[in-house]
UniProtKB/TrEMBL annotation:
<protein>
    <submittedName>
        <fullName>Laccase-14-like</fullName>
    </submittedName>
</protein>
């Protein structure tokens, strides 16, 4: 096997010699060489569009005895935004490769593997983010989306960006984040809202005018202390529109 290196946006690329063959269900070892990265990276398959199906978080913690450059969070939670197609990915890639045109839009976006309850037949599988009131959480966002830039927001909660692509940043508090394909963003979430209400974490695409998947994926933030007594729907966040370039630019400023 060959050594590892980094792709754009802190993705961990595992370079494997083409003459190495693996059987389904088998295992192999790969040595990963890091330099000064600290925070959230991710690994993924690197053949065609296979990274849309095989991927995961790769977290680099501070050296022993070294604190975070921010208050230590109560809990850390990876949040992977991805895409899902009803058809086999290889067939999809062969199709648009042969035509020379644009790839077919995905059938759903997902949060930690689940499309969310705005899609048919996925209500029972919606990812639930359980939190406690008055705590600080570190949400490690990763975008495994192939092409789309994504707006992400939690209703009634702000997010404070503290790291991007395996490197800490000056804290930046925003009502939403915009994450690009392959990017990782570390965000502090303070749980300071009413516990008897559920809140949506929602993500949808920002588009530059081409065709795109215009659906919205959701997860549900729930406070452990109380149940949603009135059984009302979770509060939905105000997300920028699909074509809101100013919102995309303002997040980065």
């Amino acid at each position: 096997m060959e050594s590892s290196n980094h792709d754009i946006h802190g993705q961990m690329v595992l370079n494997i010699s083409p003459n190495v063959q693996f059987k389904a269900g088998g295992r192999f070892k790969q040595k990963i060489i890091l330099s000064d990265e600290e925070g959230t990276l991710w690994w993924h398959a690197h053949s065609g569009w296979q990274r849309s199906t095989v991927h995961g978080a790769l977290i680099v913690y501070p050296k022993q005895g070294t604190p975070y450059p921010f208050p230590k969070p109560h809990r850390e939670i990876p949040i992977v935004i991805a895409e899902w197609w009803k058809e086999d990915i290889k067939k999809l890639v062969d199709e648009f490769g042969a035509s020379g045109g644009q790839s077919r839009n995905s059938d759903a976006f997902t949060v930690n593997g689940q499309p969310g309850d705005l899609y048919p037949c996925s209500k029972n599988g919606t990812f639930n983010l359980e939190v406690e009131f008055g705590k600080t959480y570190l949400l490690r966002f990763i975008s495994a989306v192939m092409n789309e830039l994504m707006f992400v927001k939690i209703a009634n909660h702000n997010l404070t960006v503290v790291g991007i692509d395996g490197s800490y940043t000056k804290p930046l508090t925003r009502e939403y984040i915009m994450i690009t394909p392959g990017q990782s963003i570390d965000c502090i979430l303070k749980t300071n809202q009413k516990g008897d209400q559920y809140y949506y974490l929602a993500a949808r695409a920002y588009s530059n005018g081409t065709t795109f998947d215009n659906t919205t994926t959701t997860a549900i933030l729930k406070y452990k202390e109380k149940e949603n007594k009135n059984s009302s729907s979770p509060l939905f966040p105000y997300l920028p529109s699909y074509y809101d370039t100013s919102a995309a630019v303002n997040f980065q400023c």
